[in-house]
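haha ok so turns out i had the wrong file open the whole time. this is the CORRECT one, sorry everyone. sequence first:
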Amino acid sequence: MALPNTHLGPQAIHELMNGKKNLFFDGIGGISMNSLAHISAIRGHHVSGYDRSPTPITRRLEQAGITVYYEADSVHMQGCDALIYTVAMGDDNPEYRYAGVHGIPRISRADYLGYIMSGYRERIGISGTHGKSTTTGMVARILSWAEADPTVFNGAEMKETGTVDRIGGDTYFAFEACEYMDSFLDFCPTIAVVLNIELDHVDYFPSLDAIKQSFTAFMNKTGSSGYAVVNANDPDCLEAAKGYTGTLVTFGNRNPLADYWSQNITTDHGRASFDVMKGDEKLARVHLQIPGKHNISDALAAFAACHICGIDPEKIAEGLGAYEGICRRMDHVGDTEKGAAVYSDYAHHPTEIEATLSGAAAMGYSRMTVCFQPHTYSRTAQLFDNFVSALADSAADEIVLCDIYAAREINTYGVTSIELAAAIAARGKKCRVIPDFTEAAEYCTRVTPADGMVLIMGAGDVVKVADAAVQKA
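then structure:
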């Protein structure tokens, strides 16, 4: 059972943290948690934490002098002044229980992040069902290119830094704002970016209307003096923005009704170049390095947010042109023994899959072999027909499915990858299920020629297929 968010707020946490030096992080190896541990240590706290197993992230923390335990034990809490925890932790966690019994303050990850960001002047929160990590990375690259020295908390590793975070000055704070369990309602953005809104996280949100209400609430966290940067091409975004009380700024690909829009789009092997317009004025021309037309919309959002902050348009365009992407977003991780390119992508929602496969098709490979691992039983069951369409109607030559990644769930839905594969095959797309990662990698590499692509997709541990498919030096 997931733990609840605390929703204490920055002021209450500030009062709680007064004089407290020893902090313990439960789930310290998590993407956001490790960043919070990192910045807390830089700020002079004594930091330690627990996670289930060693990873490159926990090893980096240990190299920075942070103690990481790999077995949960209440003894770790002795002498600690506060516990920061991830809601993915169970309520049977011994450190969490010890803190409760002994009156040690317990603060959820999102609540603590809201407290950390509150000290920065400009706080740019990037939200949406898709594209958050990519757009956060774009904002980070723009601000760094413009020598604005941002602090950044991303949800994926940025290629420019090799980390998920960047600790900079105290003016700009750019962060990925995830809607799951309403975590983003603990944040305090001055600029709230909303890339898109769709039905997702169906284990928490009962309906699309409920999701839209949450996004409206997130936008309003800016207060009346803030900004919401909203996708004008997404009707659900516009509907959610109707309840916004600050300054609304819109962006939209090829949409002259938006405040920031794109025109004169050209592509080279799937990589777009385009003019950024504000009304009738051309602000700059952008040349993206990363493939996929969906990245035009993300780039417009990043452009608008940074322009609101006063960054020069040409600097913004240069930063976007220098942006190399983030790991596991159409990430070229190597080649097979035959010479076929192996790409890894995090896409796990039908809309993301459509965008990823469309972008991949434009890259000019002779064959596209796709290995996909569905993520969570609830998402697979509730969006089953959408998954079928996204995969069956794509340009992929063949789909290989791995078993569904359970994450936090048990299969009360009765849905399986075998059922999904049968539905995809019934639509005329060649599809098979190979549960074993090594066997999946061997099959994908065998059927893909030297001028082809093997594309590994999913948010679970399917990245192991990519690792197995790449020829070892």
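The mean pLDDT is 94.
again sry for the mixup
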